[in-house]
Structures are given as C-alpha cells and as structure tokens.
Amino acid sequence: MLIGRPGFMSSPDPRSLEIRTKLVDGDPLHGQFGAGASVRLLGIEYETRRRNRLSARVIDTDHTHIALHIEQSFGNCPQYIQARGLTLLDGIDVIGEPRERDDFTEFNTGAHELIESSDNFYIASHHTENMDAVSNGADVSHRGGEPGFVKLLDKRTLQFPDYPGNNHFNTFGNLLLSPRAGLTFVDFLSGDLLFLTGSAEIIWDGPEVAAIPGAQRLVRFTLAQGRRVANAAPIQWEFLNYSPRLLQLKS
User: Is 2.60.40.10 the CATH classification of the domain at 9-250?
Assistant: First the structure.
C-alpha cells in the first residue's frame, strides 16, 4: 500500500507515472523489485468509488521514488467498494520508519478479528505462462462485501465469495494457471496493515457456493506466511456507506 500527501503521484505524460514516497516498514515488497520489473497497481478514490488498474514496468527506483512506464490501463466499475472519506495524519511525513510487526504462519486472534470484520481487501495474483502475451504478469484487485464475507475455516484457511463482476477474470485467469496469491487487509480503525501470502483454490459450484446469496464461486486461501504491521497507514477513515451493489445481492 503506497501512501503520501496529495501530489506524491504525478503523470508527466500519458505513458509515465512518478511515485514519490517510501514503502511502509514491513511491506513485503522491500527489496523485491528494481528497474525492468513488471508491476501492477490499483488506484481507488474511496469517496467516489472510482478505481483504475495499471500494468507497468519499473524504469527507475530507490527508497523514495518509483518511475514507471505504463503498458496498460483501464478503469473498473465501482462494484463492491464501500465509500469512505479520509484525513491524513501527522505520521504521513514519517512513512517508512520502523513499526511494530508480528509475523505468523497461523492466524492469531488479532488477524482473525481483522479478517472477519473487514468489508474489503485486496488480492494479488501472477502468472508467466506466455512471456509475450499481453495477459502475462501480475494483477491486483479489490474485493468487497459486508463484514463477515471473508470467513476463517481453520488456523491457516480462509474463504470468500466471488460476486458478479466485470467478467474480465484477471484474478481467476491467473489463479487457474498459478495458485500463488497475496492478500492485504486494512484495519480502518487502527491503520494496521495485514499482509498474507499463500495459495488459492477456486470452488466453482456446489452447495457451499449456493449457500451464499449472490456468490458465483468461492475462493479458498491457504496461508503460507502472514505479517501485521502496526499503525502503518497514517490515515483517519470515515465510513460513509456501503456499495449499493451489496443490496442487489439480497434481492
């Protein structure tokens, strides 16, 4: 999750994006990419539910700056984004400074409570089956629902529904070819960030899918490693309202 004061991102031309900020302490991306790396980004304006996805290649990077060349960009419909207002806190000026963190391989009480109370999270997926294909590489997507839509099945497994969407199947196309996935949850009260890596299995149909209103399929995620970083996002969030699409799921 990249955070900064308004203006920390700029686009000097239609194919370039400049990001000037530090990664939060404990972000798993530290040291994981450099010039030439292929990356995917998701931008969301929570007040309006507007979102955009980018496919890009890193041109240059250091600990305070990422320069990107844009390869693909497309907007997504609002779908299941809950509207929120935000106010930046003073900690925005010390992004990257050490934070308390907790690493785990089984869901502890804190992770359990955050996951099952969340109304949104983000999922990253990746595949490199055909290096020349435009569909090659990573993807990151938003998932939303009413609190409780993500459920823990045991100490290493969680499950969430896939509701009707834009039918691009960016995430599911990747997961079919490679089950590796990364999830990020945001604690909108404390500013904590929860990073999870593991593998995902798609449940296409059956009684488990039919039991959840609106679900077209389920995703079952098995944890390999998790990390919670305390007070990583120095933002005060104000919940505004749930996505109107959630009401349609009940009708």
Answer: no
Buried residues in 209-218 as b, exposed as e (16+ CB within 10 A) = eeebebbebb
Question: What are the domain boundaries of the chain?
Answer: 9-250
For 96-133, the pLDDT digits (tens) are: 899 999 999 999 999 999 999 999 999 999 877 665 66
Question: What is the per-residue pLDDT across 39-76, written as a single tens digit (0 to 9) for each?
Answer: 999 999 999 999 999 999 999 999 899 999 999 898 88
**Which tokens hold the place of 84?**
């929120």
Q: Where are the beta strands (DSSP E) in 46-136?
A: 50-62, 65-76, 83-88, 101-104, 120-127
d(CA 221, CA 238): 29
